[in-house]
Specification:
The chain contains 9 helices and 14 strands. By secondary structure, it is of the alpha/beta class. It folds into 2 domains: about 5-145 and about 295-315, Rossmann fold; about 150-290, Rossmann fold, CATH 3.40.50. Helix 2 (about 65-80) packs parallel to helix 3. The longest helix has 17 residues, at about 65-80. The protein starts with a strand and ends with a helix.
């Protein structure tokens, strides 16, 4: 068994790391992480971590490549400081869409990132709602993938109390039907699926049809992330065209890049419920956004990993 449990954070999302530590009732570990003027990253742990069970919290958020490099250096520094075990806590795993060769002469970057983390010295990965389940198979170390779907479903069960019979869960495409089905099953409501076409690599989508009935119903769109907002807004528009009376949406990861906020502001979407796997800067926060915290979920998973208990049992409880 490893000795003390220690949680450290990079610069990506210190608020989430602090919330995890509050849940665990331990202080956040002290570390220095900064960039020299030549953009080289420097890391130094300011306390003894020899033989400790070390958890490094760092979602891959903007600037993504800097945050990845920062985590790799933190892992290397912890390894060289004789940490007992190093767990990379990556609530949002970027490059998740590059999980297969879907065009000639392209990389599988999600696998490359996995290799980086292993070579740097990570002993395990703790993450939330990977874009594709097969990314787990890119690792030769244990991967614990948590899901925020139960948290999101619980929010809407309360919100639509007495009106659940009017709700239809909507998947943004066939590939996301399994994720949406899990929310629909938790809410005990029907599922509809939007058929869409992605237009090359231009981050543009075209929704072409809805499989299922949304007429006169409250549509609840479920996705894993909102990036530029193109898919979500196209889905909102097509379900409204098919007669939905109100449209809500939820996702685990609010990436909100490029024109996302402007698109969502103009959209007839009533509410977007997200989690804090990614920090939303104040200038991107809209009144229609609701943020739920995954800190208790991550904190409990960290506690169970540290004490050798089942993380899988969390899925039954949440």
């Amino acid at each position: 068994m490893y000795t003390d449990l220690k949680v450290f954070t990079g610069r990506a999302h210190p608020e989430l790391a602090q919330a995890i530590c509050r849940y665990l009732e331990i202080p956040l570990g002290q570390a220095e992480v900064f960039e020299f003027s030549n953009e080289n990253i420097f890391v130094r742990y300011l306390e003894n971590i020899r033989s400790c069970d070390v958890f490094l919290v760092q979602p891959f958020v903007s600037p993504v490549n800097t945050r990845i490099m920062e985590l790799l250096i933190m892992i290397d520094a912890a390894k060289r400081a004789s940490a007992g075990r190093i767990t990379a806590v990556v609530p949002y795993y970027a490059y998740g869409r590059s999980d297969k060769k879907d065009q000639p002469r392209v990389p599988i970057t999600a696998r490359l990132i996995a290799n980086f983390l292993e070579v740097a010295g990570a002993d395990r990965l703790l993450t939330v709602d990977l874009h594709a389940g097969q990314i787990q198979g890119f690792f030769n170390i244990p991967v614990d993938e948590l899901t925020a779907l139960a948290l999101l479903a619980r929010h809407f069960r309360e919100k639509f109390k007495g009106r659940l019979s009017e709700v239809t869960v909507v998947a943004t495409d066939v590939g996301d039907a399994k994720r949406a089905r899990r929310v629909a099953d938790r809410l005990e409501v029907p599922l509809a699926i939007v058929e869409k076409r992605r237009l090359g690599n231009l981050e543009q989508v075209e929704a072409v049809n809805v499989i299922g009935d949304v007429k006169g119903r409250i549509a609840l769109i479920v996705d894993d992330e909102v990036d530029t907002g193109g898919t979500l807004v196209a889905t909102v528009e097509i379900v409204m065209d098919h007669g939905a009376q109100e449209v809500y949406a939820c996702c685990s990861h609010p990436v909100l890049s490029g024109p996302a906020v402007q698109r969502l502001e103009k959209s007839p979407l009533k509410e977007l419920v997200v989690t804090d796997t990614i920090p939303i800067p104040p200038q991107k926060m809209l009144p229609k956004f609701t943020v739920l915290s995954v800190a208790p979920l991550l904190g409990e998973a960290i506690r169970r990993i540290h004490t050798g208990q089942s993380v899988g049992a969390l899925f039954d409880e949440h």
